[in-house]
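hi! just following up on the protien thing from before. the input was this:
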Amino acid sequence: MLKFVRYGAWALVLVVGFVSTSILMGWWMSDRSRTEQATAIGGPFSLTDHTGKAVTDADFRGSPLAVFFGFTHCPEVCPTTLLRLSNLTRQLGADAARLKILLITVDPERDTPAQLALYLQSFDPGVVGLTGSQEQVDAALGAFKAYAKKIPADGGYTMDHTANVYLMTGEGAFRTMIDYHEADSSALAKLRMLLR
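and the predicted 3d structure came back as:
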């Protein structure tokens, strides 16, 4: 009987050890997977800013970025997001000067540099509008794993697109996202974390 109890105790130790190791390995693998996914977001792009100047991702190195994909004919999501970012950056105080906000158009057919410049007059003067050829915009969308699709509407078209804001470090690494429906307090905390 004592022998059976001893073997049973060892079996229990082995099972607990196996389960604990499996849990820890699962946590480590999922954490590693999250890190790998994060490093896959962002990358090189070559576009034209709203002043007509050709720029690449390298031109923004050294500054934390808030990157948003949108378009000037957007009825709600884009202006709401840009106004929200403007309001949040005001709450950052002096740190706000270090943050660059990029609006990358998903509608290069209509969003010329001149159109972007006109549109951005309604928002924070620090927002940089970016456009380019369809191929250049598609490359930027791919780098950020963002989505955009032209949708026929009222004899013309609108654009369905990713509504999140990508927060990138000054070295170009993905840090986190601000969701369109996220509370302002949470979004502000993320911006402060990015600027630390």
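Confidence is low (pLDDT under 50) at residues 8-38.
The helical segments are 2-39, 77-91, 113-120, 134-143, 184-195.
cheers
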